[in-house]
């Protein structure tokens, strides 16, 4: 992704798009427009999409999308996770959103690498006139604060079923809709597994609902431990809560990278003093 984004044409087929509409249309119908300067005043947003749509569950775990996301984020975490899910319906008359990088939600200036990647699926056709996402190719490499000039801005036009995948640091925005039809997209974003998730995935789905999800999706939501030692519950892996396995009789486990385990094995075998390195690679 030299330019910080890629569009996969027809990543899901017509039947899947139709199914997606059937699953989500009732939720869009009953939702009010946001009343928020960033989320828009003429834009509907719906959340917690995995309990609303089996198709969204499949989109989130799409092999090619995950391969791309892992290519960008994988080397900086033990595993990636879902950051948020959101259906975004830009209604006629909505103005263009402020241009922003999504990773601004993580308040570290001059990030040394990407913290998140967004997959924005076209639920309806994305066209320049109806609010197709504005993107600034290459801006993920810019110095923070640099403003794009109008000729550096492009429109992510795509047919339904296609997906725009872009780096969290890429400048972009929801476009203005000057037509009389809504433009709808489905955002499923991913982040480094050690970050706080934007949409709280543990509170968005009751545990009985999580039990119905594929193990791959459960893991993406955060049911697992990010090595080293992030996300355990009652001293054990949170997946035990899903399977009902009771490990009360065992003491707390630790969840270490291979390199840390090797270091500790060495320490046990005789060294008096050892210092863990901050730079241990998994
Ligand atoms: O709906 C879109 O095209 C993009 C929206 C967006 O960038 C956002 O809400 O962060
Ligand atoms: Fe955004």
Provide a descriptive summary of the structure in words.
This protein has helices spanning 14-30, 54-60, 63-73, 201-204, 207-210, 215-221, 239-243, 258-268; strands spanning 5-8, 43-47, 80-90, 116-122, 134-135, 154-155, 163-167, 172-173, 183-192. The protein has a 6-stranded antiparallel β-sheet with strand order 1-7-4-9-3-2. Strands 6-5-8 form a 3-stranded antiparallel β-sheet, with no helix packed on it. The protein has 2 domains: 5-204, Sandwich (Jelly Rolls), CATH 2.60.120.620; 225-282, no CATH class. It is of the alpha+beta class and 282 residues long. Fe (ii) ion (FE2) binds next to loops.
Summarize the structure in short.
This protein has 2 domains: 5-204, Sandwich (Jelly Rolls), CATH 2.60.120; 225-282, no CATH class. Helix content is 23%, strand content 17%.
User: In angstroms, what separates the terminal alpha carbons?
Assistant: 25 Å
Taken in chain order, the helices and strands follow as EHEHHEEEEEEEHHHHH
Summarize model confidence as the mean pLDDT.
95
CATH topology of the largest domain: Jelly Rolls
β-strand percent reads 15-25%
- Which ions and ligands are bound to the chains? 2-oxoglutaric acid, fe (ii) ion
Cα-based radius of gyration, to the nearest Å: 21 Å
CATH-scheme architecture of the largest domain: Sandwich
Per DSSP, the total helix count is 8
CATH class of the largest domain: Mainly Beta
Q: Which strand order spans the largest sheet, edge to edge or round the barrel?
A: 1-7-4-9-3-2
Provide the helix percentage: 10-25%
Count the E strands: 9
Uncertain regions: pLDDT < 50 for 5+ in a row?
none
| Biggest beta-sheet profile | 6 strands, antiparallel
Overall outline? globular
Helix and strand composition category: alpha+beta
Report the CATH superfamily of the largest domain: q2cbj1_9rhob like domain
Number of domain units: 2
